[in-house]
Amino acid sequence: MKVLWITNVELPDAANSRGNNVVVGGWMHQTLNYIKNSIELYVAACVSEKYDWIEINSVNYCGFTPEIDEIDFERIIESIDPDCIHIWGSEYNHSYYVTKAARNLSKIECTVLSIQGLVSVYAEHYYDGLPPELIHRRTLKEFFGRRNIAQEKKMMELQGQTEISTFQMLENCIGRTDWDYACAKQMNPQIEYHFCGEILRESFYVNRWKYEECDKEVIFFSQAHYPIKGLHIMLRALPIIKEYYPAVVLRIVGNNPQKKAIFKRSSYEKYICNLIHDNDLSNSIEWLGQLSENEMMLNYKKANVFVCSSSIENSSNSIGEAMLVGTPIVASDVGGIKSFMEHEKEGMLYHSTAVYMLADNVIRIFNSRSLAIQLGNNAHERAKKYHCIEDNLQRLIKIYNKLKCK
Q: What domain range includes position 151?
């Protein structure tokens, strides 16, 4: 059976062959490694510079640019004549154009889209927890071409309209939470929803957090690059935590915006810098830069608690990785998180803008060795089932077999 994947990013084997380095999309690469011996796989990825088909380790790769249209996708599809087309994510224009191409070629019945995030819904949460005066502010950088927060939200809303149009053409989608089921059905009540969990990166299945070996009073925070990830919420909670644990350390994946020249900062970066300065938090924060898979795994193991304070998520891969490792988790009760985490069983949940409850949950875990261990063990057991490689691989192959073109 021939399957054509459409991906938002270039996968590692193809990227490495062209001298590039990729640190995102690990779940897709892991799925590819397990499924490539069961199907004839073709991967078309969105890249900065187009390239034709190359074969690497029994998988065929090509690259298309963001400017691609339905005609170009028709050529790609016709050159392969796949039995199934699998689109990974709906956030970008190419998902719309490949869906349209599949419909034009009478292959829409054998096309399926995996829901990742949903920009049409994420846009509604872009301002969550932000002070009103920040939303329309512009820094010097934003006067010279960079979009400010209000413009970013507007761009997300426009992209969301394209996403909705994509779903309205589709007949099949793959999801994994009650949240993405509800959203998909509201965009297209006739769409057939197929459940399939995600296969995460290998090292998180084989490494375990241990209380005795973790760095006490350390919080690990894995994404901080834009408002939806909620770093501002975490930074507002940190002074409360410091009242009880003055030596607390927040380790953040990403680069320190304080080290940027003032004229190069975005409005959100300026706000983050102000929160750090006004609350005297500089000595309580470690910026880790961009981390490899192994470095991420080590930081999950070292942390006393992992925090996800996003204003919206579907099923966060970072939470999934932390659960597999068994790191105690505090997470905002948003999106699809409740589909795989029960409050006070596999993690601690709080209302997304309730800064004081985020702080309280972290303090409770710091206070109690037994609670930390219990949460970590329960999370690991739940994640083993939710992210089970064998089960999810079988589900995906079953979906392909069900949808394959006659």
A: 2-200+389-401
pTM of the model: 0.95
CATH code of the domain covering residue 53? 3.40.50.2000
Packing angle, helices 355-367 and 369-386, rounded to 10: 110
For residue 337, is it within any domain? yes
Question: Residue-wise over 319-336: b if at least 16 C-beta within 10 A, else e?
Answer: bbbbbbbbbbbbbbbbbb
Distance CA 394, CA 49 (A): 34
> What residues contact 212, with CB distance under 8 A and at least 6 apart?
none
Residue 339, domain member (yes or no): yes
Average pLDDT in the 106-118 region?
97
Contact 174, 196 (CB under 8 A): yes
Rg of the chain (C-alpha set): 22
Specify burial of residue 227 (Cβ count, 10 A radius: 0-12, 13-18, 19+): buried
How far is it, in rounded angstroms, from Cα 325 to Cα 319? 10
391 contacts 197 by C-beta, under 8 angstroms: yes
Which residue blocks in 175-230 are alpha helix, DSSP H?
A: 178-187, 203-206
Are 192 and 214 contained in the same domain?
no
Cβ neighbours of residue 110 under 8 Å, at least 6 residues apart?
82, 83, 84, 85, 102, 403, 404, 405
Q: Are 309 and 153 in contact (CB under 8 A)?
A: no
- Residue 57 gets which letter from DSSP? T
Residue of 4, 1, 8 whose CA lies nearest to 115: 8
Give the model confidence (pLDDT) of 338-393 as tens digits: 999 999 999 999 999 999 999 999 999 999 999 999 999 999 999 999 999 999 99
Query: Which residues is 88 bridged to in the sheet?
Result: 114
* Cβ contact 81:105 at 8 Å: no
